[in-house]
Amino acid sequence: MTGVHSLSSAGLAVPRYLAWACLFFAVMIIGWSPFSGGARLPTLLLAIVGCWWLLTMLPALSKQRAVRRWTSVFLLLWLPMWLSLLHAFSTPATLAAIGWFSLMYLAGLVLVVLLQQPLYRNLLVRGLSWIVAVWLLDSGIQYLLGTDLLGIAKTPEGRITGMFTDLHQGILMLAVLPAIFYYLQARHAWLAWGILLGAGVVVTLSGARGYLYIYGLILLLGLWRRRPDWKAWLIALSLPLLVATFSSLLNPQLAKSKLEATQSLTANNQSWFDRANHALSYRLNLWETGLHMWQAEPVTGIGSNNYKRAYKQYASRVEDPFVMNPTHSHNIYVEWLAETGIVGGLGLVAIIGLCVRWFRQAGPACQQQAWPYALPLLVIYFPLNTTQPMLVPWWFPVLMLLACAFVASLERGSHDTAA
């Protein structure tokens, strides 16, 4: 039957149109992010397909090693969320998070099956390449004309946000940048380097210093994997500096404000805490309050989806700017430990250990396939980082996409064959 594909070694018979639709939904996890609902809609559509597969093809799915691995990763996050109900600051909020997160398993089920096929992985990255290219072009128009293609203006201080009304474009672009670079480098090396440099300039013009830090980590870890000579190391180490310098010339006002914040570290009339706190845009307040939450409930935490809700109760500093306007912790580990305690922390460490083990057990060819997805995950989960926490509806689907692509790439996917 020409309208049916046999996906993966377990021989899952899937209509061709459904496989293509799921691939489109996967691309839209990134592509629809600037618009209403963000990644929620494509993730929900993938979850609906995953639910149907689970009900109709459970025996075949259970035979797949990649599915079992994805199930292990999910359970190590999901079960601590259930246990966090024991001392939840707001039980309804935690139950809502558990219900929403349950859909992630179903959506990931589809991704981990689909992306075992090299054809679909390549098409996924090709689609992401077009999206990032459009974002870069749109951001350039916004810089030159003041507004982008959708009429969105850059911020009063000159930040470039592209099609977004917030700063999400930079982190989303960085999450898929390694996969795009490795894909294009084998086909159009000049285009791969152009997108790499363009993304560096755009994320720097967003004014988020953490994005430039992540960009530098991606370059260093990517270079470490190749183990080149000292000249390549010198280029990689100087690239973030060159990008930052070029970006400061494009927007001197924004560069000046960021430099002034960093220079606060040398102020003599403040304590070291206050200096570092100001330089880090008051991140230390967020992390200290998260520590107080963890200390209050060290084993199971204060409940998933409760960091912002409980912030005022656990904040201890009089001039904390986030008491009246709570935000997320800007660190994966701080918020995860605060909400799910030691149980959640051990689960996250177990996931990292399993992923390292699976990667080492794979053959060189599979490692090479999986590395473009492992690299951004390594950087995002690097402890000394100020990224978004995991359980955010617009962000976790992106992490799920990377994790499922990583797990799927470790399998030797067969070529599509008619069932």
UniProtKB/TrEMBL annotation:
GO terms for cellular component: membrane. Keywords: Ligase, Membrane, Transmembrane, Transmembrane helix. The chain crosses the membrane at residues 17-35, 41-61, 73-89, 95-115, 127-147, 167-184, 191-224, 230-250, 336-359, 392-410. It is a multi-pass membrane protein. Residues 196-348 form the O-antigen ligase-related domain. It is found in: Membrane. It holds the Pfam family Wzy_C. InterPro entries: O-antigen_ligase-rel_domated (IPR007016), WaaL-like (IPR051533). One of its GO terms (molecular function) is ligase activity. This is O-antigen ligase.
